[in-house]
Amino acid sequence: MSSKRISDIKLDEPTAPLQIRIIKKWKPYMKPTELCYLFVDIHGDGIEAICASHEEDYFDSFIHIQSCYTLTKYVTVPSRTYMAVVPHNTSLRFGKNASFAPLPECGIPAYYYNFANFSVIVSRKVNSSLKIYPTLLSDYIGRVERIRNITSTKSKKEFIKILVQDEHNNVLEVTVWDKSLFKFQTEEAINQVIAVTSTVVTEYNDTLQLETTAASTISINPAIQDINDYITRYIDLKIPTTLGTGEKKVTIAELLEHNSNENMGSRFACKATITSISTYMKWNYALCSECPNKLYPQTDGLTCVNDGVIKNPQFMYCVHATIADISSSANVIFFDDAMKSFVKIDCKDMVIKHGYTNPKIIPHPILSLKGILKVFHINKKRDGTLAINQVSEALTNTTSSSTASPKTSTTPNKLETKRKEYISKGINSSHQKASHQKASHQKRGGKKTKPSG
Hints:
Layout: E1 18-26, E2 34-40, E3 46-52, H1 56-60, E4 68-72, E5 75-78, E6 90-93, E7 99-102, H2 118-123, E8 138-152, E9 158-165, E10 171-176, H3 186-189, E11 193-204, E12 207-212, E13 218-220, H4 227-234, E14 247-249, H5 252-257, E15 267-277, E16 284-287, E17 296-298, E18 301-304, E19 308-309, E20 314-324, E21 329-335, H6 336-343, H7 347-352, H8 364-367, E22 374-380, E23 386-393, H9 406-409, H10 412-425, H11 429-443
Parallel strand pairs: 3-6, 10-12, 14-15, 21-23
Antiparallel strand pairs: 1-2, 1-4, 2-3, 4-7, 5-6, 8-9, 8-11, 9-10, 11-12, 11-13, 15-20, 15-22, 16-20, 17-18, 18-19, 20-21, 22-23
């Protein structure tokens, strides 16, 4: 039986058998009554196929993702004009009359990508607040530079931020709204090739970003025909000097010179070290597990004004410190994501497991961070406050005028080793408090893998 190429499918023409592989399925957010599939043929061309969502169980009983079939008895319909996953102007629609005859493996690709280059990505930017949706969703490939830990917003929605750089040193962020899409350990993913599909291009805090959708997939070192070419081209990329639109790499002196009113919301990156940590400010705060409200210590326990005493509060870092490079120093605040990625201990674990229940006594693992050279990603607020929301590695082969002075740059390895040894020994909290108090006392003094466009 002869089959038709997906690229040759047109509206108002007789249908013919299709030999396809099912790549993925999803339920579009805008049309929950529909169930969508992505089919690909042996030529690497893709097409969307749609059925009624209430028939999902019926079709799941005999068709499966990544399996191959000969499809007959379908109809052709115009593709939707928003959030399409492929550029084909025709889609398929099928129901219980359709026939899916199992097809032995015959070389049909197990993937479909339609990578867009950076300039095309920029041209597809939409204003999500105006509910304007793109005609075509975007696939993108690059190298993972940094991964922010899962973050809970006030609505308790969890997401992941991934900084991605392409072979031309363009940088953007990928916002992963469904954390189950990213099934990789951070250590395994850093500096590896990432392919993300079916995203919406938006902008947040002056940073270009790709937001995942219900149709999105994420792969690390995807099994595509020219993956080795991508790995070779990305292996020698330098650390980005501009980390996302609006984030500039500066010295602390240059950061302090910026007018906070003119640069409200601007983001900067400084290579520096922590020189001191304030012992006059609390190093954490607690949030209600039932609502976004802050908790207050009462005789009965941590209390929410709406929900009363909370037995399982959310603890968040808020560490006031001074950072310095060779040019100057500045007072900053490390918020939860930044401190968690730096100290490698969740704030709740620091309080519960490590026994640091007093928010006015700085934990030793945090104190041991002093002198370690890092890149601090800073948001300068209108009132001049410098908030650190991310911390990344300071690569030694990257030259910058903001490197730390020799006095501080000779100690990071020793401090880092000491901190890791301390944590691994599991020293009890009473010993930790005693050590800290003693120290304080002493101190008081498909084949379509080429980017389009």
